Amino acid sequence: MRLIMKNENWTVIQAMRHARHDWMNQLQLIKGFMALGKLEDAERVIETAILQARQEAHLCNLRLPNFAEKLLTFNWEERSFQLEYEVLDHETSVNIQDEWLSEWIDSLFYLIERHIKRYGDNLLSLSINKADEGLRFFFEFSGIIQNEQLLLEDIQSQLQASYVQQWKIHEHSSQEFLFEVVL
Fold first, then answer.
1. Same domain, 69 and 52
2. Global pTM?
């Protein structure tokens, strides 16, 4: 099995190495906080790791393996923003083509990266939940947008696709962009 990444094909061993590195970082944080007697901080790191593992399981339970792989490995590469995600309905089964959804999310991430400051403190939070019409995605970007108007135009163009059931832009400024999409 090979994981196709942005600039390289990763083997399962390489992916496992990266995942293990992430877990080791968390364990070292916990160990360091405990050595300093900061048990509340150590507990916070543990709770964050548990929540993250649950969200990874919820994402995988959507039965969209290519899409899940995109989100799970997104922060492993050099990117212009960090990605956080939350699957709100973890028992959701969806009727969306996985390959298409993966390509769509890649295109959307590319559009965002084109219009933000490369080394800014940029974060994209994504909430996913079931909607009557399909699957709802709520995107909340915070960071430094270099050209708000161009980003708005590009996102609107991306959301005009025939497979998009509904979409709405809630807010946009030079520092945040909030929108939702139902596919």
1. no
2. 0.83
